[in-house]
Write a structure and sequence with these properties.
Layout lengths: L10 E2 L3 E5 L5 H7 L16 H13 L6 E10 L4 E11 L2 E8 L8 H15 L4 E6 L4 H9 L3 E7 L2 E7 L3
Parallel strand pairs: 5-6
Antiparallel strand pairs: 1-2, 2-3, 3-4, 4-5, 6-8, 7-8
Helix pairs in contact: 1-2, 3-4
Length: 170
């Protein structure tokens, strides 16, 4: 199956809606992602709304490589009707590399785990065979999210991060 044509679509879980990313989300998401603590393991600093809009425009435009799909969502907590973070998947061939971030005020409530499980389930439906994530060895919260999504650590590393993976189908 050609996964280069896969596009982000609405994914719903028990408490969350994963909404395909739009540049219009930048203003609210800049506030959600404003904590410098979110960059402890990934580097960088919080972006301004304008810089985040530019980044989102680039992500929504898609990968310049037609064999790669960039899929991005904002996480919306239905009960509070607010955005709480993002999830993403970069699909190359039948493999998807995923990542997640939840704003500091919403951490510790299982939202990242729920969003990651929803994303992995959706990717399985798209015929993705392998899901991977790269996680800093000291980032216990992300390791817990990866575990909840069915990923396990491997012996491989990249840029000082451990490759976690899950084979979704033979």
């Amino acid at each position: 199956m050609d996964l280069s044509a896969v596009h982000a679509e609405l994914i719903s879980t028990a408490r969350l809606d994963l909404i395909p990313l739009s540049a219009a989300h930048a203003e609210e998401m800049a506030a959600v992602l404003s904590s410098p603590a979110l960059h402890t393991y990934i580097g960088g600093a919080p972006l301004t709304p304008a810089a985040l809009r530019t980044r989102y425009e680039r992500l929504v435009a898609g990968s310049p490589d037609p064999a790669v799909s960039w899929l991005n969502w904002v996480i919306r907590l239905r009960s509070d009707s607010c955005f709480t973070g993002t999830v993403q998947a970069t699909v190359t061939g039948s493999e998807a590399e995923i990542a997640w971030v939840v704003g500091a005020p919403w951490q510790g409530r299982g939202l990242a785990s729920e969003a990651a499980r929803g994303l992995v389930s959706w990717l399985e439906e798209q015929a993705v065979r392998t899901v991977v994530a790269h996680i800093h060895p000291d980032h216990r919260a992300s390791a817990a999210v990866a575990t909840a999504a069915g990923l396990t650590p491997s012996e491989q590393s990249q840029d000082d991060e451990i490759r976690w993976q899950r084979a979704t189908r033979p």
